Amino acid sequence: MQKQLSFYIVIFAVVLLTIAIGSIFIGVYNFKESITHTFLNFIFNYQEVNPGDRYVISHIRLPRIVMAILAGAGLSLAGTSLQGLFKNPLASPDLIGITAGSVFFAAVAIVLGGYIKVHLPEIIHYSFLSIMSFIGALVTMTFVYKMSSIHGKTNISVLLLSGVAITALSGAATGLMTFLSTDEELRNLTFWTLGSLAGATWTKIIILAVVMFTAIYYLSSLGKSLNAMMLGENDANHLGISVEKIKRRIVLFSALMVGTIVAFTGTISFVGLIVPYILRLIFKSNYYYILPLSIFAGSILLLVADGISRTLIPPTEIPIGILSAMMGAPVFISILLKFKKSL
User: Fold this and answer.
1) pLDDT, tens digit (0-9, with 9 covering 90-100), for 284-313
2) For residue range 316-340, what is the model confidence (pLDDT) as tens digits?
C-alpha cells in the first residue's frame, strides 16, 4: 500500500511540475527569446536572461504559480479533511463559516480601513487587508469551536449549526459594509471577493508556505484514522485512535489554512469540494490515498484554472473565483443527483 501511494504521489508530482513549468510561459507577455532558451538560461545562466523576461518570470509569474500551488493544496486538503471528519462529501471549508468570517473582516478593512489605520503603526498599513482577513478566520474558528465544544468533546452537529449561523451573520454584516461603501470601495470589495492570484508576492508566499507545511505535517498522515472514523467514533476509539484530538487538529488547521489563503487571494470556492470528489471516484473513500493526493490534485486544479483565467480573454484576466465556481457548481449538482438516486 505504501509503495502504491508513493507511485501515485510521484505521478501527481510530475504532472504538477510539468504544468507549473508550462504556466511560466502562459499569458499575454511575449518573451524576447524562445521559450526553451529563456527557460534554460533562467535555470543555468540567470544573468543572461533578458531583463524584462527575468522580471516577468521572477516577480510576476513564479510568485503567482507558487501561490496557486500552495493555495490549491491548502483548500483541497482542508476540504478533504473536513469531508472525512463529517463523513459527508458535501462538506467544505465554507461549511463552518471560516470563509464568511474572513470575508466580513476584509470588508471592514476595505470600507472602514481609513478610520482604523490612523490608530495603527504605518508598518502594517500595506498588509492591513490580509491581516484583517486572517483575524476574521481565527475569530470565526475560535467562536465556532467554542460553541461546539461540550465537556471537552466536539459535537459535530453543533459545529455545523454554528457554522451556518456564523455564515449568515457574517453575510449580513458584509452586506451592511457593502451598503455603506463608496463606489471605489464597492469595486475593491467586489474584485476581492471574486478571488485573484495577481497580488502574489514572495513575502506572502513565505507566510503561506510556513502555514501550509505545518498543516500538511499534522494532517496528511491522518488517512488511516479517518478511515477508522468512517466506521463510527466508538469503533475508532476502540482501535486506539484519539478521535477528539483528530477533530481539534482538523478544525484548527483547516481554519488556519483557509484563513491565510483567503487573506492573500480573496474568495476561491469549490476547490475543497471538487478535488476530493474526483479522487473519490478513483480511490473510493480510502482516505489513506485521498488525503495526501489531494495536496497535489488541488495544486494542479488551481494552476489549470489560473492558466485559463489569464488566457481565455486576453489581455484581461477573469477572476479565478469565477472559474472555480463554474467548475465546482456542476460537480456539486452531480453529487446531489447521486444522493437523490440513492434515496
Assistant:
1) 888 999 999 999 999 999 999 998 888 888
2) 888 888 888 887 778 777 777 776 6
Amino acid (one-letter) located at 279: L
Mean pLDDT, residues 111-119: 83
Decide: helix, strand or coil at residue 149: strand
Give the Cα separation of 235 and 229 in Å (integer).
Answer: 7
Q: Phi and psi for 216 in degrees, rounded to 5?
A: -60, -40
What DSSP designation does 92 have?
Answer: -
Q: Phi and psi of 238, rounded to 5°?
A: -65, -25
> How far from the centroid of its chain's Cα atoms is residue 220's Cα?
15
Averaged over 109-134, what is the pLDDT?
Answer: 81
Report CA Rg, the chain. Answer: 21
Grid coordinates standing for 335? 453529487
pLDDT for the residue numbered 254: 87
pLDDT, mean of residues 179-193? 85
What is the Cα–Cα distance from 111 to 178, expressed in whole angstroms? 8
Signed CA dihedral, 92, 94, 99, 101: sign only: negative
H or E element at residue 26:
none
C-alpha cell at 280: 473519490
186 Cβ neighbours under 8 A, 6+ residues apart: 178
CB 228 within 8 Å of CB 136? no
The answer to whether residues 276 and 76 touch, using CB atoms and an 8 Å cutoff, is yes
Cα separation of 331 and 327, whole Å?
A: 7
